[in-house]
Each structure stands twice: as structure tokens, then as C-alpha cells.
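[09:14] KT: can someone run the structure on this one? pasting the chain below
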Amino acid sequence: MTTTMLSGAFKTSELPKLAGEPVTVTVSRAVVPGREADFENWAAAMAVRLEAFPGSLGAGVLRPGDVGGDYHLIFRFSDALSLRLWERSPQRAALLCELDGVVAETRVQRTVGVDEWFELPERAEPSRALWKHVFGDVAWVFPVALISSVVVAPYLAKLPLELRTLASAGLITLVMRTAVGPVRKRVRSRRTFG
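[09:31] RB: done, C-alpha cells below
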């Protein structure tokens, strides 16, 4: 059986930000029909091993609501380093070998620092208004569109309207994806982890 990565990729420079935060992992598994009892026994053994592992904050198994639905194994570690140690442990490797022929598909979701999920609704931060989202998007696209209009548009002036529009849209999309997108993502991550 192939080993599914739990901790995900992260840059070494991000480690101080992740090291102190609890990490919650949800592993969804589609069980081969007729092997549900085998999987439930395996999941119970996995939960016991997880709870005994250093840095573990607990584990649980959620059964599917519908016949044939996914099982969810949810566990939490005190930090990303403890999760990484579990991920590379011989105990986990041995348990995963037992899943051959039992599981059809596995998906992993990792969340860092989810304590805010459990705050009272009146203490939760409200989501941003639609106009703020639109304003933020326009603020990132406007400089690229302006530069494109001033620098590139004169070279495209002789083209038919459809080709001019296609070339402009393609260029702006390319610049947004390759240059502006990574900068925007870095700015957002600093604001999120800060």
C-alpha cells in the first residue's frame, strides 16, 4: 500500500509558525464493499495506537451516514513535528500494510490551529462583505491592466478587436498567475499566520 502523506509539504522557514500550533488531520477512506467490519476493527486499533503516540491529542472514527459512504479518521497532534514523527513511524507503516484490499480510496485534509472553529458565534470574526472581496481583487488586477494598456496595447492596435481582446486577456491572466498570484499568496499567508 502506498503511504499517504499527512503532514504535507511546508518550507523550513514556516516551521517556527507551525511548530507551536495544534494540527488536526482528517483522513477519509472509501472502504471496499463487504470489508466494513475489517475496516472498523482496523480503525479502532489505529485510534488506540494514535492516542498512545507522543504528541497525540486524541483520535476518533466517524462512520458513514449512508451505506457505502466514507469513514473519517480524525486525529490531532500538539504540533506539526509530532505529526511528522507519527507519519514516519513504524507503527503507522505496519497499520497501513493491513489496509491492502480493504480501502479503495484515501483522502487527507490537514488544518493548523483550528481553535477558532470552536469559539462562540458572537465571538467569531464575521466574514468579509462581497464589496471588500471585489475591491481587493480589483486592487491587484488594476496595476497589471493599466501597464498592459499603456505598454502592450499600442502594439496590438492594428489587430482585429477579437484578437486584441484575446491577447490582452491572455497576457493579464498570465501575469496574474505567474507574478502577482505568488506575491498575493505570500502576503495573505503572512496575515494568516502572523
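[09:33] KT: thanks! Confidence is low (pLDDT under 50) at residues 114-125.
[09:34] RB: yep, looked fine to me
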